[in-house]
Design brief:
Length: 268
């Protein structure tokens, strides 16, 4: 019998007793959990790539990157040619902030885990907005923020070469509302280390406000930390859940397989 339990007060749900992962009734419950709880966990599934893709396709259209629908998350360059960029994932972020329509959701399955560290931390920017003092809501309303891949990579690689910086800049930047009001009326905060600056604000004041906002969004009461076990499946709402990988030895065999679900709603 399928049952659920909260992973933390503000976000996350664990589903147990799963017999048929592709059952339409279960998929409906998963989509509801994704919307209202942000993070979904099912332990011990041990899905292969085809099983992960079959589940992902029930959630939405799967993104194909360089002709592949499965992306290998590993710091080993022999497994992941873009391993160097993964250094940026050790900092809080949303995926796809340079895109007009951000990624809807991401799934990860654990194939190998680190002996020490290597968990994934999540923070709800829905809960962060809902708990803002009224004065801060008014302060943030109407502000516009520019996000870029470069901003997060500079943090991860402060001694970058000019060639690296030029490469980052090819991905461009995007301006959007700091407070994102969705079509269904819910609001979240578009935060994270891709947030480069607030439009029209003094640079020092802008940096201080963005750092203050990220600290607010990622306080423990809005967070859940997932300690991976081999066979876990985790899915999260990329539009309202910040995430980051916790440090681990680059020589470890930590390997996750990721699918990415096409987004449905453009940034405001």
């Amino acid at each position: 019998m399928t049952e659920t339990r909260a992973l933390s007060p503000s976000l996350g749900v664990e589903v147990t007793g799963v017999e048929d992962l592709l059952d339409d009734a279960l998929i409906s419950r998963c989509l509801e959990a994704l919307k209202w709880r942000g993070v979904l966990l099912i332990r011990g599934l041990h899905l292969d790539d085809e099983g992960q893709l079959a589940f992902s396709r029930k959630i939405g259209e799967v993104v194909s990157l360089r002709g592949k629908e499965i992306f290998t998350v590993s710091l080993d360059p022999s497994k992941n040619p873009t391993a160097e960029y993964l250094k940026g994932t050790f900092h809080w972020h949303l995926d796809g902030t340079s895109d007009e329509v951000p990624i809807k959701a991401t799934t990860l399955t654990a194939r190998h885990v680190a002996m020490v560290g290597g968990g994934t931390e999540f923070a709800s920017t829905y809960a962060a907005y809902e708990n803002l003092p009224e004065g801060d809501r008014k302060r943030y309303d109407g502000l516009r923020v520019v996000h870029s891949f470069e901003a997060s990579q500079r943090l991860a690689n402060p001694d970058a070469t000019e060639e690296q910086i030029r490469s980052w800049r090819t991905l461009g930047s995007r301006e959007m509302s700091l407070v994102w009001e969705r079509g269904d009326g819910r609001r979240s905060l578009v935060s994270g280390t891709t947030a480069d600056h607030i439009v029209g604000m003094d640079p020092a004041e802008s940096r201080a406000l963005l750092d203050e906002l990220l600290e607010w969004c990622t306080q423990p009461r809005f967070c859940y930390t997932h300690d991976w076990e081999v066979g876990d499946l985790v899915m999260w709402d990329n539009t309202g859940i910040l995430h980051r990988a916790l440090p681990y030895d680059a020589a470890s065999e930590r390997t996750l397989h990721r699918t990415t679900i096409v987004g449905e709603e453009a940034f405001a």
